[in-house]
Amino acid sequence: MSEPAASFDPGWLRLREPVDARARAPGPEGAFAARLPAAPRLLDLGCGTGANLRHLAPRLGRPAQRWTLVDGDPAMLAAIPGEMAGRAAPAPYETLRLDLASGLGALALGDFDGVTASALLDLVSAQWLDRLVAAVAQAGLPVLFALSVDGRVAWQPEDPGDGAVLRALDAHQGVDKGFGPALGPSAPELCARLLAAAGFEVRTAEADWRLGPAEAGVLDALVGFHGEAAAGAGLSASEVAGWCDRRRRAISRGELRAVIGHVDVAAWPARGGMHPQPGP
User: Fold this and answer.
1) Three-class secondary structure of residue 72 per DSSP
2) How far apart, in whole angstroms, are the C-alpha atoms of residue 43 and residue 129?
3) 222-247 confidence digits (pLDDT tens)
4) In the 8-state DSSP scheme, what is residue 63?
5) In sequence order, what are the beta bridge partners of 70?
6) Are 103 and 179 within 8 A, CB to CB?
7) 60 neighbors 91 (Cβ within 8 angstroms)
8) What are the residue boundaries of the structural domains of the chain, listed by start?
9) What is the DSSP letter of 253?
10) Does 276 score more than 80 pLDDT?
11) Helix (H), strand (E) at residue 145
């Protein structure tokens, strides 16, 4: 039996949102926007608290766009109005609660003009991703899948425990997050390959987090996440505690920096297979 689909704290999503926004690659984003009709209907998978809508809607150059935000976690959907508070929603939207692990086939993709997701693909299985690619290919839709981790992690200054923690983290990233064995850092490469095999033109670009003293909260959270993952993958408690303590002392001194590798993937059906035709 699979575990429940992965869920996240809205506070963590709020903390990482500006880091994500700075990291996103303009090339895939622009290529996706260029393949949308004048008044696109957009489907956002695993929407969390709506960060993908908030980032993309003002950048697509389509004033009449409409969004459907899909997530299986009711807490995420309930948090969206609060995250929109104090700023105008960048486009009209509705929410849909759906367990994407089992309910992907229930989505009427023919009702939409584009599909997006952010920080989702590394959580899913190869089988689930294959079904998603087949579905968007059948519907003839452009896609933009942003911010999938690709396994590149570089801490500065280096620490003797980095290698063991990262090896344990890699092992943990393959744990079932509710969709079957998770792809983890292999997600962006497999996604691009499946889309190309399905007849899509594909554009990818690195979209790395670059963290320093100004992102101390994100660094502290990452140290905690990496430590928990390493412990879960079998690293000894003393090794994990020592690494986390050294890293947090570096944060407190304003010394710790990190690059966390991510990749953005945009794709659209080639050879005239797109539905509908792009707008101006």
Assistant:
1) coil
2) 16
3) 999 999 989 988 889 999 999 999 99
4) T
5) 45, 96
6) no
7) no
8) 10-151+174-210+261-269
9) T
10) no
11) strand 143-156
